[in-house]
Amino acid sequence: MNDSYDGTIVIRPFTREDTAIVHRYFEHLSERTRAFFPGYPFTREEAERLTGDDVDQSDTRRFLASVQSPEEETMIGYVFYWDWDKKVPWFGISVRDDYQGIGLGKKMMDFSIAEAKRHHKGGILLTTRKDNASGQALYKRSGFEMIGDDPRGELLMILNFPAKG
Predict the structure, then answer these.
(1) Cβ atoms within 10 Å of 31's Cβ, excluding its own
(2) Where is the secretion signal located (predicted)?
(3) DSSP state, 103?
(4) What is the three-class DSSP state of 117?
């Protein structure tokens, strides 16, 4: 856990000015954490793409969780959706290694579920590696159900939102 954490966390959308903060976030992810996102390029170029034209795409939504010090904002988590224009979009979440175990994942998950409900989604889908025990525990506590394996051999999980009637 990070000793500088004081409890004030902001979750906000990515902006075009976030390239440096996103790249620093990538640099602080361990190889173990990176392995949960196979094929994902944790590079400066990827940070530029995510904070460039991707910000304006209608089918993606990206949010960062950060803590603020007098000197700088530090990105400590990342929430993303793709296929946002679908009734049930795909979802992903990542927490910087030195901020794991303090409840940040739960806070980000609660935000993500509320955001999807606010936009009248029918639920959210995700995949997770079979060895991601902490992620699976968070997803199950949040109401996700396992519905099978995806073609890459990862677990496929869904959280359905009850229809309002």
Answers:
(1) 7
(2) none
(3) S
(4) helix
Amino acid (1-letter code) at residue 124: I
- pLDDT per residue of the chain (165 residues) written in tens, 0 to 9: 444 445 689 999 999 999 999 999 999 999 999 998 888 899 999 999 999 999 999 999 999 999 988 888 999 999 999 999 999 999 999 999 999 988 999 999 999 999 999 999 999 999 999 999 999 999 999 999 999 999 888 999 999 998 775
Beta bridge partners of 156: 127, 148
Query: Phi and psi (nearest 5°) for 66?
Result: -145, 160
Two tokens, residue 59: 């089918």
Which residues does 61 contact at the CB level (< 8 Å), separation at least 6? Answer: 13, 80, 81, 84, 89, 115
- pTM of this prediction? 0.90
Q: How many CB atoms lie within 10 A of CB 165?
A: 3
* Residue 32 Cα to chain centre, angstroms: 16
Please report the sign of the dihedral spanned by the C-alpha atoms of residue 155, residue 13, residue 83, residue 35: negative
54, 60 contact by CB (below 8 A): yes
Q: What are phi and psi of 5, to 5 degrees?
A: -70, 125
Q: What are phi and psi of 134, to 5 degrees?
A: -70, -40
CATH number given to 10-160: 3.40.630.30
